[in-house]
């Protein structure tokens, strides 16, 4: 059956009807406010005043229908659109890389605010889409930023994102657990958002995350939830300069264990920082030899 969509109001109602039951009212409103301006190239604010304006365009209304069909499968909006916004950067995403979370923006914001005017070297371990590395390079244009990841598709996506945002970042494909420290420049800041969701926590996650986002970038064994943090700190022992700082995004249940690990590795000025929801989300420490 053909779908005839002539006005923004009709498109809005179509999306609401087709996606009801899959998304909350707030989520539906957000989807509509992103999809319509994006497809019809309308200012996100002014389109709200054009509900009854005829914007018939067979190609573009066809794209609305296509987007809607993808969303009905549970595919995240960011993957359907092919990009998302992260700390004032536009970041391309696909099912081979994680969708950047608000918590990770908080991590970047902390680094930016604590290191104003930074001109040293930053290494982002497990860079994925490159969102952290790109955002830091944009905010610290005189710094030298490197992103490391084991995934070839992730490295290619991160490279595209650096170009898209006019950020100077170098990327290295490497296995954290096998990497030769001599292949990496020394760093003044190391940052990482490694896999930290325990396998037993899958049951609490949204189905669309489990169905579409890369499990290797999310999950760790219950019996060894800090495996990536230990490997990063081992590498940092070779490449992080004295008085250098390490920043981690962490599982909300792992604040104390991560603190203990940092202390064991001779870090000082350790802080476990809560996110906007009051959950332990960031760990940081300064290296002392």
Description:
With about 290 residues, this protein is an alpha/beta fold. It folds into 2 domains: about 10-70; about 85-285, Rossmann fold. The chain has 10 helices and 11 strands. Helix 1 packs across helix 2, helix 1 runs parallel beside helix 3 and helix 5 runs parallel beside helix 6. The mean pLDDT is about 90. It is about 40% helix and about 20% strand. The protein starts with 7 loop residues before the first helix and ends with a strand. The strands form 3 sheets. It has a 7-stranded mixed β-sheet, with helices on both faces. The protein has helices at about 10-20, 25-40, 60-70, 75-80, 100-115, 130-140, 150-165, 205-210, 225-240, 255-265, and strands spanning about 85, 90, 120-125, 145-150, 170-175, 185-190, 195-200, 220, 240-250, 265-275, 280-285.
Query: What's the CATH architecture name of the largest domain?
Result: 3-Layer(aba) Sandwich
How many beta-strand elements? 11
**CATH topology-level name of the largest domain:** Rossmann fold
Can you say what the CATH homologous superfamily of the largest domain is? Vaccinia Virus protein VP39
Residue-averaged pLDDT: 92
Gyration radius (Cα, Å) is 21 Å
Q: Give the strand line-up of the largest sheet.
A: 5-4-3-6-9-11-10
- Unreliable spans are none
Q: Could you say which overall geometry the principal axes of the C-alpha atoms support?
A: elongated
Report the sheet-strand fraction: 15-25%
Q: Span from first to last CA?
A: 70 Å
CATH class of the largest domain: Alpha Beta
- Overall number of structural domains: 2
How would you classify the helix and strand content by structural class? alpha/beta
Order of helical and strand elements = HHHHEEHEHEHEEEHEHEHEE
Binned, the helix content reads: 25-40%
Please outline the major beta sheet.
7 strands, mixed
Number of DSSP helical runs? 10
């Amino acid at each position: 059956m053909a779908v005839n969509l002539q006005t923004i109001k009709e498109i809005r109602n179509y999306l609401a009807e087709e996606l009801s039951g899959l998304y909350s009212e707030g989520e539906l409103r957000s989807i509509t406010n992103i999809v319509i301006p994006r497809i019809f190239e309308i200012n996100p604010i002014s389109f709200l005043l054009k509900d009854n304006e005829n914007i018939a365009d067979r190609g573009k209304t066809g794209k609305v229908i296509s987007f809607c069909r993808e969303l009905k499968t549970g595919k995240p909006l960011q993957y359907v659109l092919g990009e998302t916004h992260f700390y004032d950067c536009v970041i391309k995403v696909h099912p081979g890389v994680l969708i950047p979370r608000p918590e990770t923006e908080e991590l970047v914001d902390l680094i930016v605010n604590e290191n104003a005017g930074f001109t040293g070297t930053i290494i982002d371990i497990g860079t994925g889409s490159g969102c952290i590395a790109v955002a830091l390079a944009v905010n610290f244009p005189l710094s030298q930023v490197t992103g490391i990841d084991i995934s070839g598709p992730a490295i290619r996506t991160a490279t595209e994102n650096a170009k898209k945002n006019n950020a100077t970042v170098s990327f290295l494909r490497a296995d954290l657990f096998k990497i030769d420290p001599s292949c990496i420049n020394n760093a003044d800041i190391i940052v990482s958002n490694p896999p930290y969701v325990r396998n037993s926590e899958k049951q609490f996650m949204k189905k669309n995350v489990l169905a579409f986002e890369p499990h290797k970038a999310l999950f760790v064994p219950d019996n060894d939830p800090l495996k990536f943090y230990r490997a990063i700190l081992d590498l940092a022992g070779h490449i992080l300069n004295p008085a250098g700082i390490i920043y981690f995004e962490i599982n909300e249940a792992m604040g104390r264990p991560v603190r203990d690990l940092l202390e064991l590795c001779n870090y000082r000025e350790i802080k476990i920082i809560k996110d906007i929801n009051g959950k332990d989300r960031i760990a940081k420490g300064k290296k002392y030899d």
